[in-house]
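Protocol step 4 of 5: obtain the predicted structure for the target chain.
Materials: sequence only (see below). No template structures provided, no constraints applied. The aim of this step is simply to have a reference model before the mutagenesis design in step 5. Sequence pasted as it appears in the construct record:
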Amino acid sequence: MIRPDERWWSPWRESNGVIVLHVDLSPDSEREARAHALLDDEEKQRWCGFVAERPRRQFALCRAALRLNLAERLGCSNGGLSFGYQEHGKPFARVKGTPASIGFNVSHSGKHGLIALADHSYVGVDVEERVARRDLDGIGKMVYGLAERQSLSAVEGARKVHRFFRLWSLKEALIKALGTGFTLNPTGFEVPGAMLHGGRSGVFRFPHAPSATWWLGDLGEPRFAAAIAYKLSAPPFPD
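Step 4 output (structure tokens):
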């Protein structure tokens, strides 16, 4: 059992019933050992598959925090919790083999992780530590639409770095909420126009499925870029 003073996660944001937790992924051997002990056999094998120390730490701390928060909300033990995977790899929780009625999404970058918890599966969250790269415009051509590329090319220096990762996190959150991974071409849709000009939130529709509406929110702050997306009026489980 993890005491409150030993937790490496904390409530961070809440929107329309979707709760976002922040996970501290700073190196700490004691809490990493506690997190590792909470993983099941399959997760420990996956942990062993990471060669570098940072991905191991990120996986263990995020997955253990996810496990404890799901178990608390579902009223089950950590041992009774397992995970399944949808067609394109998006995970879902199971309690003693039965799909659970809580959806979630996880993202991590550097020393920061985010976990989104919702009462439906159509939720996506993304966090990105801003790291200067040589050719942001060149990378942008592969993932951004025309208006997004124009917005990126209009700024330079630190502003370009911030805008690149802001756009990246917004689009990634939408893709993760949809649950299709990058089978969906990211250049085929753009974030709402008002958000290109600084708006912090907006309603979005995918061009290939315009009947569904999504809420998109910019959660960025000085430490990192971040975003959350979820389907409005999403059906409860089962879908």
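Step 4 remarks: The mean pLDDT is 94. Helices lie at 29-38, 41-48, 53-74, 136-143, 146-153, 157-178, 193-196.
Proceed to step 5.
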